[in-house]
Amino acid sequence: MSTFAEFCTSIVGKVLLALVVWFVGKFAIKKILGLMDKIKGLDKIEPNTRTFINSAVKWLLYVILIVSIVSILGVPMASVITVLGTAGAAVALSLQGSLANLAGGIMMVIFKPFKVGDFVEAAGVSGVVKEITLFYTVLNTPDNCRIHVPNGSLMNANIIDYSAEDTRRVDLTFACAKSESPAAIQKLILEAMSSNEKVLDDPAPFARLSGGTNEAMQFTARAWCKSADYWDVYFDLTQAVTEKLGENGVQAPAVRVISGS
Fold first, then answer.
1. Based on CB atoms within 10 Å of each CB, which residue in 20, 127, 145, 222 is the most buried?
2. DSSP alpha helices (H): ranges in 37-76?
3. Is cis: bond before 203, omega within 30 of 0?
4. Which residues contact 15 (CB under 8 A, 6 or more apart)?
5. Which CATH number do you get for residue 131?
């Protein structure tokens, strides 16, 4: 009984010490990660790289903490290493997708196909990049939904970065009756686009007859603007050109009436 009591006391002591180390370690990790954000020089690193580094450091510190707790509990380190090696092989086989996501995160940090704050379209979704972590990239959609996209999927997909360039081109199409003068319609469209302050003068706005049917002519209009003004210019020009054509009595395309017996 005396030996059993000593054994229980020893086990309880180790467990209590392990718990203390766990909570103290968590507190220390939190403080270390907080200090990393205040280190001079790190603030000059791109946000996506900084987030990736913080995630990697956090995982590494937790691994060290867990190994320390296992050592405190009296488990031989040789056995721990053996178990970790075996478990690592099994986990690697079962978590191939997660490892692909990790590799994708590393590749994104190296090649930087986009950065935090860019509006991108990839892997079937689109939105503003809010965060890049070890395994996932977080996007906010235009309707304010949050999407976590696996990094592996991103690195194996075509990525469209709408914010990469300073300017973008707005493409619009308009139709009118076949009886209208193409030159007059072209002039009206150009006047409507030129009156918009957000439309750039260089490259100059473009409007030309681009197609049509037996009942209508189709015009293509193109205007350049700053990337941040794209949607404002898109909707403003759609309304401005439509109003301009209406004010000048431009007729809409004729509607074909099909009569049946």
1. 127
2. 47-72
3. yes
4. 73
5. 2.30.30.60
pLDDT at 259 over 50: no
**Residue 257 domain flag:** no
Rounded to whole angstroms, the Cα distance separating 89 from 68 reads 22
Q: Which tokens in the block code for residue 29?
A: 């990790």
The pLDDT value recorded for residue 59 is: 80
Using one digit for the tens of pLDDT, what is the confidence trace for 60-81?
888 888 888 877 777 676 666 6
pTM above 0.85?
A: no
CA proximity to 208, closest of 223, 197, 196 = 223
Q: Are 208 and 173 in contact (CB under 8 A)?
A: no
Q: Is 172 left (phi over 0), alpha (psi -120 to 50) or beta?
A: beta
Residue range of the domain that includes 241: 167-247
